[in-house]
Amino acid sequence: MKKSSVVIAAAIALAALSGIAEARHGSSSVRGYYRSNGTYVAPHHRSGRDGYHNNNWSVRGNTNPYTGRAGTRERW
Predict the structure, then answer these.
(1) Is 32 domain-assigned?
(2) Scanning 20, 30, 36, 45, which has the fewest C-beta atoms within 10 Å of its C-beta?
(3) What span, in angstroms and rounded, lies between the C-alpha atoms of 35 and 41?
(4) SS3 label, residue 25
(5) Cα–Cα dist 40/31, whole Å
(6) Alpha-carbon distance 17 to 19, whole Å?
(7) Is 33 within a domain?
(8) Measured between alpha carbons, how far is 34 from 54 in angstroms, rounded to an integer?
(9) pLDDT, tens digit (0-9, with 9 covering 90-100), for 38-63
(10) How many domains does the chain have?
């Protein structure tokens, strides 16, 4: 009985930690959509909005964790 409650507690802790890591990562997935000019934008992931230009995946020194591409935009 004691061993099962330790396993349950560990599972809850692991689930909580993964949720914290996802929240800190600050990314979201975007569904594909059509722009007003008819251009289709494929589904993708984007970094979270926090008001800081330099921590965007597209800025030099940063790497997109989903594609592995390095950023190309200049830092401010």
Answers:
(1) yes
(2) 36
(3) 7
(4) helix
(5) 11
(6) 5
(7) yes
(8) 28
(9) 999 999 988 887 778 777 888 888 88
(10) 1
